């Protein structure tokens, strides 16, 4: 059996499903219903792909969280990018962003209207474009969580070393822990435990979740993306809940350390500083983003062009905000699959490869029978 297959072994999966069923029954006997938020969009996709939701007891629910960087990007950010294209800048972006709705348009429509929007497969492509178009300004759409921030911010490092001045970042970097804190502080959202993200945790370390266990008595389990990782994670959460414990358990120790990746953290601190950030549907969360330090203002598109990003408007019928907060399953959105589909996305949650609505659209769901309110 190869390395990956070991994490997909059906016999082991059955054992975990049996253990989860036993623990779920024990919790049900105590009258307890368990809401586990899977924070990461990659977990959401894996849970759909492997049918994990369907394997859980009726009183154990997995609800999706704000773990897709495209989905949490505010429409105002897209508006700002379109405005920069209107000033003649070349926009360089990862592919998912080009169909994300702004307040009134998106980057695909911007391109049709003559905007120069280029899809990149690596951040350093922005430098290549800048070098081959020295008479133009290149703006890289710098979104992402802790996982992708370092490679993206390396554009600045590369530009400085290569003497390239015509490239800048339109930043909307987001930090996961402040968002998790904001969700726990919202008493309308039912979260009993966090299934913590894998890749983000490799950077920030499992210690980042310790305050949630200590202050909110919420078990936090860091898990990988394979089916056995997720089942093992759910099993660990239920075991803690049965013992009325709340602690951080790192079940992805083959990748994640308690302190995370100090080199990546130092790199972020070298170029970036905490800023308040707007999360689509959630609003402004203090110190939940990272912006370029003042000494790098020449590479900060907002400052370079004097065009600050403002909060935008999302489609009136789109419930992405509630989906991102785990308050609503996509199936309960009136537009889901009738008006809003991957071919005609109304909100970013249907656009992104890690979006919750896209995951629900793609994979069969027991939620279709169950309604949708969490
Ligand atoms: S189904 Fe579409 S419109 Fe509804 S919340 Fe999801 S993305 Fe928004």
What does this structure look like?
There is one protein chain. This protein is α/β, with parallel strands linked by helices and 374 residues long. The protein has a single domain (1-374), classed as 3-Layer(aba) Sandwich (Rossmann fold), CATH 3.40.50.11750. It is 40% helix and 17% strand. The strands form two sheets. It has a six-stranded mixed sheet with strand order 4-3-5-6-11-10, with helices on both faces. Strands 2-1-7-8-9 form a five-stranded parallel sheet. Helix 12 (227-242) links the parallel strand 8 (220-222) and strand 9 (248-250). Bound molecules: iron/sulfur cluster. Iron/sulfur cluster binds next to helix 15.
Strand content: 15-25%
CA-CA gap between termini: 39 Å
CATH superfamily: HypD, alpha/beta domain 1
* Total domain count: 1
Shape: globular
**Fraction of residues in helix:** 25-40%
Labels describing this entry:
Rossmann fold; 11 strands; disordered C terminus; 17 helices; single chain; globular; binds iron/sulfur cluster; alpha/beta; six-stranded mixed β-sheet; 374 residues
